[in-house]
Amino acid sequence: MDTDRARGVLCGIACGDALGRPVEFVSASEIRAEHGQLDEMIGHGTWNQPAGTITDDTEQALCIARSLVEQHEFDPADIAERFVAWYDSNPFDIGRMTMKSLSRLKHGDEWDEAGQHVWETSPEGQNAGNGSVMRCAPLAIPYATDRERLVEVSRQSSQITHADPRCTYGCAVLNLTVAGLLEGTDTPLQDALDSVGSDAPGELVTALQPLARGDSLDTLETSGYVVHSLQTALHDGLFAENAEEAIVTAVNRGGDTDTIGAIAGAVAGARFGASQLPDRWLSAIDEVGELESLATQLVEAE
C-alpha cells in the first residue's frame, strides 16, 4: 500500500475538520459574505479556538488509530474506553448521540449495548447522525485487503455510539470506498456498494448510487444526517480535481462543515495522498506528526 495515501486519509480528516471548525453551523451564503471562499485555517468563529484546531471528528479518529496500533487489532472495547477517556477530558465539541452513548458506557454499559440503547430511545430524525462515519476511516488502512472483515469492524466501530443501520453501513461503505482508493481500484464506490449489497439500507444505497455511476448532483444537503453527510462528502471527495478543492468545496457548502469536511478529506486524502494536501494547512495542525506516524504504523500492520 502507498504510505502517502494512507497518511492522506488521516491528515485529510484533520484538514477538513480544522478548516470547517470555525464555520460549523454557518450557512454557505454567510461564509461567502464573510470570507469569500474560505480556504485558509482561521481562528475563532464557532467554538472560538485558534487556527488549525481539530474537533471531535479527528480526536475520535485518533482514538481508533491509536487503539489499532497499540492493540495490533480491532478491539471495540478498547476503543470504547478511549472514547470515554476523551469524553472525560471535557471536549468543546461533541455530538448528542455520542455524548449519550459515552455517558452510558461510563456508567457500565458494554461497548455493544450503549449505542443500541440510545438508538432505540431516539426519535426518527435524531437517531442517524454522522458522528460515527466522521471518525471511522483509520480502519480502512489495516483492513484494506480484507473487505469482509472491513465491513464487520466498520459496523462495530459505529455501533459503539451509532447503532442505526444507516450509520453502521454508512461506515462500511465509506471505509470500503477509502480502501478501494488506497488499493487503486477504478470504481471504489461502486465496488463498496456491491460489497454490502442488499444488506445496506435502501435509502443509503439510493443516495450514493448516482455518485457511483459518476453522476454529479446539483442539490446536496449539509445537515448532520448520515445519509446527507456521506452523499455530499463522497461527491466532493470523489469528483474534485485535487485534494484542496475537495475539502474547500465541502466546507464552503456550510452546515455541518467540520464533519463533511473531515469525511471529504479522508476520501480526497486516499485519492491524492498527504503530499497533495496544502503545507499551509498541515503546518497549522498540531496533531499532524502523530497522524502521519500512526498512518505509517497502520500500513505496516496491514
Automatic annotation (TrEMBL):
Its cofactor is Mg(2+). InterPro entries: ADP-ribosylglycohydrolase (IPR050792), Ribosyl_crysJ1 (IPR005502), Ribosyl_crysJ1_sf (IPR036705). Keywords: Hydrolase, Magnesium, Metal-binding. GO terms for molecular function: hydrolase activity; metal ion binding. Pfam families: ADP_ribosyl_GH. The keyword Signal does not apply. Gene3D superfamilies: ADP-ribosylation/Crystallin J1. Belongs to the ADP-ribosylglycohydrolase family. This is ADP-ribosyl-[dinitrogen reductase] hydrolase. It comes from Halorubrum xinjiangense.
